[in-house]
Specification:
The complex is a heterodimer of chains A (about 140) and B (about 525). Chain A has about 140 residues and is mainly alpha-helical. Chain A is built from six helices and no strands. The model of chain A has no long low-confidence stretch (mean pLDDT about 80). Chain B is mainly α and about 525 residues long. In chain B, helix 7 crosses helix 8 and helix 17 runs parallel beside helix 22. The termini of chain B are far apart. The N terminus and C terminus of chain B are likely disordered. The chains are: A mainly alpha (about 140), B mainly alpha (about 525). Chains A and B meet through helix 1, helix 3, helix 5 and helix 6 of A and helix 16, helix 17, helix 18, helix 20 and helix 22 of B. Chain A: This is BHLH domain-containing protein. Chain A: One of its GO terms (cellular component) is nucleus.
């Protein structure tokens, strides 16, 4: 693993664990009023959003997809779910359109930039999955003991 | 006298090696080369005078032992030193002329002869060439150079001729260090030098390296120039490109006036047999027009010989007119290509995209055999989707876990980083038969019993490693998984199961989820 990947991993882990702690510790809001299943569902959504935000911040804002992710998170937090899909590029059919949908901010990029951002996004996603897996393993094993 | 003769004989035998090694050993300044060759001219001169009469040879030997004098003699006696030397009419340096020349050099014998004739026919060499020692080594090189350019006399007469020859020697020296370094050097050079000169240098270089190869340097350089920005951005491996390009071979015997064009054409032919690693899906670089006077959009309408049509990607170096000042990529239309500015820009864009695709191919596991943009895009999409699914699944898993977040974060961090690097060897049994679903898990099934933190370190390590090792080593086991596995994740595992440790960590996701449910 390269040095930048390690640094990214450390950065992300730190942020993610901080967010996890923030999400998990105040349980009063979630446990009492809703069903157990819903609690978990809601919490998992929050964890997912926290994971993506942590990764976007850890990766830095020089990447278009991180900026798009963070702006999307900010707008979602303010309950403004405006659809930024297909803002710049016309609804492209086929694979390219699919990829644009997957990569945050992809609808605004042209093909060359899209591929570049996809490459970086894939790298960060891999780190994210790895760290989340480690954290989940740790927690699950610790709790199962 | 006798000593001289015996010395000459001795030198004859080892002449070829010495001379070759000599020239190759001094890649640096040309002057040093000359001096070096001058010093050894004696030997070579001697060897080249096998059947001359003794008087002549003695005279030459005398002069050869005084290299400066030799040179002076040459320059004084002839204006176009090279030409006259080659003619060898009664000049002491008529060493070169001898028919039975180069007895000790088998390969360059024919070359030498052709080289000899070359300057004869073309007595308009620039005076600067007179300063070159007319040693047989130099003549051999020049002859070979000209020979491999199909007797391209115009090249010799080219105003850049001197630089070419100089480049020849410098290239020859550097070549011993490997083509890779040279390509890098040329790439660096490329940014500030006219393309014609570079093309010639490149061709000279290539000729030196492998006489049967075509001058591909123009292609290589042009591609490098075009890709330089992209490469910097993506941090791609340039050496890979260079080594790939160095593989291509082809003869170059066609058009006397189009050096790189010939090379490019034959390069395209050579590409039919060789796979281009770097630009696999885009097709081979095509032919390049070489004419130095051709301006930026110059091109011919000859049919291109490229077979792989998805892209013709060879690009010339910067223009001779404005090489180092402008910053955008100078693209030259290739032979047989449209010279429209739109198509040129389109080609640049296409090449950029193909380069990015190549980079992605390395990132996405299991894409080495995939060729073609569409399939590659499909793979990329699948991979991104699988990663995003894993994130969602893991977040679900984390939500179900009731963590004891009160213990210190640093310790958690340390342990976490440790887990991703540790290599424990314990083995934990587990049976992956939990259906992967996003339905909220029953809390009672999670078996969440908070435990002390210190005791967890080894356990999580071993758990993780075990799962990883099991996944990597026995990917075949997955086929026996019960049908309770979600089809999606099953496919994901089979797709990425044998890709390596990195993927094993991803695969632990779905498998570990089952683990969670299994434990009471």
């Amino acid at each position: 693993m390269s040095a930048t990947t390690e640094q990214l991993e450390r950065n992300f882990t730190h942020r993610f664990l901080t967010s996890l702690r923030r999400i998990n510790s105040p349980d009063s809001k979630t446990t009492t009023t809703h069903a157990a299943g819903l609690v978990i569902r809601r919490r998992s959504l929050r964890i997912k959003r926290a994971a993506y935000s942590s990764m976007a911040r850890a990766a830095g804002s020089h990447r278009a997809w991180t900026r798009a992710l963070l702006s999307r998170a900010r707008s979602q937090r303010r309950r403004q779910q405006h659809d930024v899909h297909r803002r710049r590029q016309g609804r492209e059919m086929g694979r390219a359109g699919k990829l644009r949908g997957l990569v945050p901010g992809g609808s605004r990029m042209e093909m060359g930039q899209l591929l570049e951002e996809t490459a970086h996004y894939v790298q960060c996603l891999a780190v994210q999955v790895r760290v989340m897996q480690a954290v989940a393993d740790h927690f699950s094993s610790s709790s199962s003991m | 006298m006798e000593i001289d003769i015996s010395e000459k004989d001795k030198l004859e035998q080892e002449k070829g090696n010495d001379d070759n090694s000599m020239t190759y050993q001094s890649p640096g300044s040309l002057t040093s080369d000359w001096h070096f060759t001058g010093a050894n001219v004696t030997t070579s001169a001697l060897s080249l005078v096998p059947s001359d009469d003794a008087s002549c040879s003695s005279a030459t030997m005398e002069e050869s032992f005084a290299p400066p004098g030799l040179w002076d003699h040459q320059t004084s006696s002839q204006n176009t030193g090279f030409c006259d030397i080659s003619v060898g009419t009664g000049t002491p340096v008529g060493i070169v002329t001898g028919g039975p020349v180069s007895l000790s050099w088998n390969p360059p014998s024919s070359v030498l002869r052709s080289g000899i004739f070359l300057p004869n026919a073309h007595g308009i060499l620039p005076p600067s060439l007179c300063q070159f020692p007319a040693d047989p080594a130099f003549i051999e090189r020049a002859a070979r150079f000209s020979c491999f350019n199909s007797g391209n006399i115009c090249d010799m007469a080219h105003p850049f001729g001197m630089s070419e020859v100089m480049g020849l020697y410098s290239r020859g020296g550097g070549m011993m260090q490997g083509l890779q370094e040279l390509s890098l050097a040329q790439k660096n050079m490329m940014h500030g030098v006219g393309c014609s000169r570079e093309a010639r240098d490149a061709s000279l270089h290539m000729d030196h390296a492998k006489p049967e190869e075509s001058p591909l340097e123009s292609d290589r350089k042009s591609e490098s120039l075009v890709r330089s920005q992209d490469e910097v951005k993506l941090g791609l491996d340039r050496s890979g490109v260079d080594s790939d390009e160095a593989e291509f071979s082809g003869g170059d015997q066609d058009d006397a006036t189009m050096l790189a064009a010939n090379g490019g054409k034959l390069y395209a032919k050579g590409l039919n047999s060789k796979k281009r690693k770097r630009n696999g899906q885009v097709g081979m670089p095509g032919v390049t027009t070489d004419d130095p006077e051709v301006q930026r959009k110059g091109g011919k309408n000859l049919t291109s010989t490229t077979n792989k049509t998805s892209g013709k990607n060879a690009k010339q170096g910067s223009q001779a007119s404005d090489p180092a000042k402008e910053e955008y990529i100078h693209v030259r239309a290739r032979r047989g290509q449209a010279t429209n500015s739109h198509s040129l820009a389109e080609r640049v864009r296409r090449e950029k995209i193909s380069e990015r695709m190549k980079f992605l191919q390395d990132l996405v596991p299991g894409c080495n055999k995939v060729t073609g943009k569409a399939v590659m895009l499909d793979e990329i999409i699948n991979y991104v989707q699988s990663l995003q699914r894993q994130v969602e699944f893991l977040s679900m898993k984390l939500a179900t876990v009731n963590p004891r977040m009160d213990f210190n974060l640093e310790g958690l961090l340390a342990k976490d980083i440790l887990t991703s690097r540790a290599v424990p060897s314990a083995s934990l049994p587990f049976s992956p038969d939990l259906p992967m679903s996003y339905a909220p898990l029953h809390p009672s099934q999670s078996g969440l019993v908070p435990a002390g933190f210190p005791a967890m370190e080894n356990h999580s390590d071993t758990l993780r490693r075990t799962i990883g090792s099991q996944l990597t080593s026995t990917s075949g086991e997955f086929k026996q998984l019960p049908d309770s596995w979600n089809n999606e994740l099953h496919n994901v595992i089979q797709m990425y199961g044998s890709s390596g440790p990195q993927d094993s960590q991803e695969l632990t996701g779905p498998v570990a989820a089952s683990n969670m449910k299994d434990e009471p």
